[in-house]
């Protein structure tokens, strides 16, 4: 397949922003689903992915008389958590995307993680559109279900329009304080220099057509080179999930290339590279969320961009946040195995060679890196002798217990966002209950409770 402007892949769009600004709800509104109400505490805790085919986007934007044909096959949208614990997931999401939507609550303006997201986007030079969400909360708002925003604004009273103007002006000023020029998209005369703001409501759908059309048109206009389809696989592991009766399945984002059933793949594992064969390639239905259980579509092959579930043997120790490689007919498996383990190696090299230190365990490579970085900082300075990704098993506890005899204050596992198996907990109790009290002083781990809330023993 030749790289050409006539063969574009779907752009990947990441939804970012402060907690509860309505990121998931906006996607629900476009999908016609109710994912948000099913979330524990109404909080997103995982990266999600949804594929929107071009025909759905065309349908949804018809009122804007966008007769021009869309050149991309669809849009892959990545939902990220806004809660403060998930900086690593936001970072992983923003690292995957071609374009982003930064969601701001019109009633709150810029908040802490709006600014954090903004900085991630600036750092990677990612184009983005601001969705100024919850316009329906303006006092006296007249609902105009799913209408383009300019039409909806015409139906509002003077009071609502003035209140809207006042808040928009304030938020534009807040962006300016962050060094960014922004403007309502329908007034923006310098697209490219000035970032677009699209007012939206995730509840009644005003502005959604505008957001979708702008996303697709903007990516087609500015990212053609980046969106040219290639056969070279670009694929990242998002989540590693044990599914009862089916072994372990990985959720991946396929950003470029084609995956086939039967492909030989290599992924990074905590115990070394994993070489296996794709047994099944699954996606949710279009307009459905990858992270929500449902019926899946089986595919013989899948073209980027897509959020995909891969079923294969031996994926138990796969590491989320690392790349997935396909072994081609001319490739040397050994080379690929080595490439796969690069990310892991850079983390491994931080382990203390003196043999005294704590053990650290996290759910993803990204969060493990963040933890190691923190422990290494001069203010904290705690050596690490063992790391692992995934649940804490008995063997992990045994490794930490060995330290009790050498340097008992290090007989500790700092575990972040991982489960502890009952057997592991039992073993830790037998060996460590007393020591727990001895070693859990704030002086040793000043910020422990803040960044490692799950378990320390
Ligand atoms: P996290 O993923 O946890 O960061 O939150 P989020 O940004 O995905 O926000 P979410 O979709 O969970 O919405 C948070 C709350 O705001 C929910 O109660 C929604 O019903 C409400 N909400 C979201 N969008 C709108 C909107 O446009 N208008 C109104 N009135 N409420 C909204
Ligand atoms: Mg959410
Ligand atoms: Na929420």
Automatic annotation (TrEMBL):
GO cellular component terms, A-Z: mitochondrion
Residue ranges occupied by any Tr-type G domain in the UniProt entry: 8-224
Keyword Nucleotide-binding: yes
Molecular function per GO: GTP binding; GTPase activity; translation initiation factor activity
Record flagged with keyword GTP-binding: yes
The organism's place on the tree of life at top rank: Eukaryota
Keywords assigned: GTP-binding, Initiation factor, Nucleotide-binding, Protein biosynthesis
Family designation: Belongs to the TRAFAC class translation factor GTPase superfamily. Classic translation factor GTPase family. IF-2 subfamily.
Name of this protein: Eukaryotic translation initiation factor 5B
Entire protein: shown range: 522 to 978 of 1097
């Amino acid at each position: 397949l030749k790289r050409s402007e006539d063969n574009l892949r779907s752009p990947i769009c990441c939804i970012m922003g402060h907690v509860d600004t309505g990121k998931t709800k906006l996607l629900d509104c476009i999908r016609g689903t109710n994912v948000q109400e099913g979330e524990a505490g109404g909080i997103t805790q995982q990266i999600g992915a949804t594929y929107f085919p071009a025909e759905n986007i065309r349908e949804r934007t018809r009122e804007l008389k966008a007769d021009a044909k869309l050149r991309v096959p669809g849009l892959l949208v990545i939902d990220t958590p806004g809660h403060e614990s998930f900086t690593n997931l936001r970072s992983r999401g923003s690292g995957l995307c071609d374009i982003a939507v930064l969601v701001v609550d019109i009633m709150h303006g810029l908040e802490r993680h709006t600014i954090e997201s903004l900085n991630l986007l600036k750092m990677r030079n990612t184009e983005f559109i601001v969705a100024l969400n919850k316009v329906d909360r303006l006092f006296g708002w007249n609902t105009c279900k799913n209408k383009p925003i300019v039409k909806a604004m015409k139906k509002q009273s003077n009071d609502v329009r003035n209140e809207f103007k006042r808040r928009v002006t304030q938020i534009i000023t807040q962006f300016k304080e962050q060094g960014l020029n922004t403007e309502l998209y329908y007034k923006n005369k310098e697209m490219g220099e000035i970032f677009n703001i699209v007012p939206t409501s995730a509840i009644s759908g005003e502005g959604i057509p505008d957001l979708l059309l702008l996303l697709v048109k903007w990516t087609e206009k500015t990212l053609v080179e980046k969106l040219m389809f290639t056969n070279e696989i670009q694929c990242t592991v998002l989540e590693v999930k044990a599914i009862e009766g089916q072994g372990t399945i990985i959720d991946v984002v396929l950003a470029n290339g084609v995956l086939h059933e039967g492909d030989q793949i290599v992924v990074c594992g905590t115990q070394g590279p994993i070489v296996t064969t794709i047994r099944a390639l699954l996606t949710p239905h279009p307009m459905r969320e990858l992270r929500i259980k449902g019926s899946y579509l089986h595919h013989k092959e899948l073209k980027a961009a897509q959020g995909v579930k891969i079923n294969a043997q031996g994926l138990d120790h796969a590491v989320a946040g690392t790349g997935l490689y396909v072994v081609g007919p001319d490739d040397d498996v050994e080379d690929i195995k080595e490439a796969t383990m690069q990310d892991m190696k850079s983390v491994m090299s931080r382990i203390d060679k003196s043999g005294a230190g704590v053990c650290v365990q996290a759910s993803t490579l990204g969060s493990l890196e963040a933890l190691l970085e923190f422990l290494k900082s001069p203010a904290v300075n705690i050596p690490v002798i063992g790391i692992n990704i995934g649940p804490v098993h008995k063997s992990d506890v045994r490794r930490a217990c060995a330290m009790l005899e050498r340097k008992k204050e290090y007989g500790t596992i700092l575990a972040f966002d991982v489960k502890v198996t009952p057997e592991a907990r039992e073993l830790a109790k037998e060996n460590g209950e007393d020591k727990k009290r001895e070693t859990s002083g704030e002086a040793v781990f000043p910020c422990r409770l803040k960044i490692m809330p799950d378990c320390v023993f």
